[in-house]
Amino acid sequence: MRVKIDTKEAFHVISIEESALTANMAEELSSILAKKQQDDPKNLIINLNKVTQLDATVALLMKKIHQEMYGEKKSFVLCGLTPDVKNEFGDLGLLEMINHTPTESEAYDIVLMEEIERELDSDL
Questions:
Q1: 3-class secondary-structure state, position 44
Q2: Number of structural domains found in the chain
């Protein structure tokens, strides 16, 4: 699987360079995301703007990782969902369960706001 990883101060941006994310790619994607969660910074933005086909297995994996990361007080945001990918998440009832934005810039904003919220919560 081809991915591009860009590390910023507060997060990693993982851009998927494939047009289709199939069920047999789920394990490799899971491995890539798990490895990046171990590196600082711990927050992840997944850019799916080149993905036009998404298997339900991968969508469910994304939901699972999203839940795990938020349980560990880390951010996970999807961005650049193409209409077909957005429909797949919607058809599975997952779209409202996962942070997603139209653009990478908006995803940055969500991660940075959540970081500020976590800092404020830890100060109380």
A1: strand
A2: 1
Give the tens place of pLDDT for each residue, 83-95.
999 999 999 999 9
pLDDT one-digit tens code per residue, 5-42: 999 999 999 999 999 999 999 999 999 999 998 888 88
**Domain limits at 40?**
3-123
CB of 30 closer than 8 Å to CB of 21: no
Whichever domain contains 113, its CATH number is 3.30.750.24
For residues 65 and 76, what is the distance between their CA atoms, to the nearest angstrom?
8
Burial class (CB in 10 A: 0-12, 13-18, 19+), 114: buried
Helical H segments across the chain, by residue range: 26-38, 56-71, 83-91, 104-123
